[in-house]
Amino acid sequence: MAQKEDVFKKIVSHAKEYGFVFPSSEIYDGLGAVYDYGQNGVELKNNIKRYWWESMTLLHENIVGIDSAIFMHPTIWKASGHVDAFNDPLIDNKDSKKRYRADVLIEDEIAKIEEKIDKEVAKAAKRFGDSFDEAMFRQTNGRVLEHQQKRDVLHSRYEKAMNDNDLKELRQIIEDYAIVDPISGTRNWTDVRQFNLMFKTQMGSSADATMDVYLRPETAQGIFVNFLNVQKTGRMRLPFGIAQIGKAFRNEIVARQFIFRMREFEQMEMQFFVRPGEELNYFEMWKETRMKWHKALGMGDEKYRYHDHEKLAHYANAATDIEFQMPFGFKEVEGIHSRTNFDLSQHEKFSGKKIQYFDPELNESYTPYVIETSIGVDRMFLSVLCSSYEEQQLEGGDTRVVLHLPKALAPVKCAILPLVKKDGMPEKAREIMDMLKFDFACQYEEKDSVGKRYRRQDAIGTPFCITIDGQTVEDNTVTLRDRDTMQQERVAISELPRIIGEACSLNNLLKKLV
Ligand code: GAP
Predict the structure, then answer these.
(1) What are the tens digits of pLDDT across the range 73-104?
(2) DSSP structure string for 481-500
(3) Average pLDDT per run of 10 along the chain, which is 514 residues long?
(4) Ligand 1 contact via 478 beta carbon (within 6 Å)
(5) Residue 2: predicted pLDDT
(6) Residue 334 CA: which ligand 1 atom is closest?
(7) Cα-to-centroid distance, 376 and ligand 1 (Å)
(8) How far is the CA of 143 from the centre of ligand 1 (A)?
(9) Ligand 1 centroid to residue 334 C-alpha, Å
(10) What is the pTM of this model?
């Protein structure tokens, strides 16, 4: 575990050192859980967004995009339930003055008990070797059963308190289980209070005409309130979807793990509107479609899993997360939710406007049901970064850090490197750059030894390095070095667009999805 945490720290500093992600406002000591994307980060992020956008809008005739405003009428958030229920239970430690989510403190306590069980199992597995029967051991070992019972009692108390929104009971659990603040080590806690995660600001210039507005905590509501606009102007017939990419804001109490949980982040959401009664079939379809999208990147099928929700929000009739194996465990990257007709009905109620679809085949009007796919761009970025990062020991005692980014997502597709700055090589290199730059993100580099330049390109995940040497000037061939294998081959300049295109094109990635 400690080793994985070390790797994660290295990834965070690598992201900064190589222009992927910087802490926001760094010269003013940063701003909690807000980050800026650097010159390589923005390219990787844009490529992720393009992959998602094109997979939605090009590959589905019945999905169109929109770009709605971040500010929306405040009643939208009343209708959606965010004003009343988008809360986290918070608690402060009076000694450290640190603020925590009460639910996270209790979940950490449950995880500690589970770790104890796992340790017992691991110890026994070592002792018994091949003859070890894990299931039997878990059912019969005294110490395991004791821990398990403690865990189950705590879990059911916790679950009930959360379901009942019982803040007093959450406080009591923290008291009963002697949960201490990890910083001060004390149990000097305040009461548990609800904390709304939406950022509020004022709109309007004169004091008496201002209105409280919120920074949107999800992009989805911009889609719901535009349902009729898009359906009517696009003459859309059910089933159809509306996709959107945009910023969302949440005043997270505990912002942890780099860009995993941020206060300003970006979402890629798609609402798919269907006939009532058909939603669960489409839910299954979107579960599969979205998993295929992730796996097509080739980062390792075993790194993904579904986490089906047992407890559903009152308006949902199915929900699952796609989780990715981060260095700190399997974590949610995307949510797929069957949200019934809740949102459209709520907006109908609160706005007083009829939001219905006339189905020409059934010759009747109704409120469509919705399947939502919702993925965080930043979490996707983090999963790509974490799974790509490798520190490699090379023959001869040398090491390199390489990002094995999916080639279609790499910020730079090829580096163009004249071996030396003379003998016509820079000029030839510029010619190649001028030929390739319209199709591929290229980087021209002539400083330092070619070995050092290769390492810099490996560190930002550039799939190909093209080296221009003495022979190039004579016969129009170059060496083409592959990032992952480090193999070099001599190829004709005229072959470069085909070779790089085949390996790096987004189209080839999209073709895997159909
Ligand atoms: N419209 C549904 C919705 O917003 P969600 O599960 O709250 O659902 C969807 O969020 C996705 O947005 C998550 O799976 C995650 O990838 C991303 N996300 C949510 N909160 C985030 C945060 N604080 N920082 C970064 N990404 C976040």
Answers:
(1) 999 999 999 999 899 999 999 999 999 999 98
(2) EETTT--EEEEEGGGHHHHH
(3) 77 97 96 96 98 98 98 97 92 94 92 91 90 90 94 93 90 96 94 95 82 96 98 97 98 86 97 97 98 98 93 88 94 97 98 97 97 98 98 90 98 97 94 97 95 97 97 95 97 97 96 96
(4) no
(5) 54
(6) 14
(7) 6
(8) 38
(9) 7
(10) 0.91
User: Cβ(408) to ligand 1 under 6 A?
Assistant: no
Give 35's contacts (C-beta < 8 A, 6+ positions apart): 21, 22, 23, 24, 258, 259, 262, 378
Give the ligand 1 atom nearest the CA of 377: 16
From the candidate CATH numbers 3.30.565.10, 3.40.980.10, 3.30.160.390, 3.40.50.800, the one assigned to the domain spanning 403-511: 3.40.50.800
In ligand 1, the atom with minimum distance to the C-alpha of 262 is 24
Q: Please give the sequence-ordered ranges of beta strands (E in DSSP) within 251-368, or none if there are none.
A: 264-274, 304-308, 318-326, 329-338, 357-359, 364-366
Is the distance from the beta carbon of residue 262 to the nearest atom of ligand 1 less than 6 Å? Answer: yes
At residue 245, φ and ψ (nearest 5 deg) are -120, 130
378 ligand 1 Cβ < 6 A? yes
User: Per-domain residue ranges for the chain?
Assistant: 91-194, 403-511
Q: Which residues pair with 359 in a beta bridge?
A: 364
